Amino acid sequence: MTGSPDTPIFSLPALTLVTGGARSGKSHQAERLARGSGLARRYIATATIWDDEMATRIARHIEDRGDGWETIEAPLDLGPALAAAPADSVTLIDCATLWLTNHLLAEHDLAAEADRLLAALAACPGPVIVVTNEVGWGIVPENALARTFRDEQGRLNQRLAAQAGLVVAVISGLPLALKGRLP
To answer: Is 61 tagged catalytic?
Structure first.
């Protein structure tokens, strides 16, 4: 695969983390990085359709992403999808926040699930880009479930960032490299 004139080819580290708030442009930035790698593109979707509004959101993501992606739905178990990645492909996981939500609502052991995810990411044959929400800039939630989610998401994001070779924060559509260098 070769890049278009406006999409240069560049190397990605084994793990890239793209974070930001809701509607910050983080998915678009992650997709740009994947396209720029010049590798075959795989998209692991962690969302599940709960209602019509969620179905509309997912349809918009698919349309915005465009052609040229192999899509794998894995709302809970990312290990097999990561293990099946060819070395000459880039895998984009969108997103760790919904993945964590799925495990929280299923009352799984979040620390154990995070350990499994980090191990699967480290073992993946090709580069991986993980999209995640930064949820720690808001007020302290009023209920215990929301506080647990915020705390667990913060812990997961820290662990992902520590393992990543490139960490990008996206604010108002603008990427900022927090670790590593943006291509």
So the answer is: yes
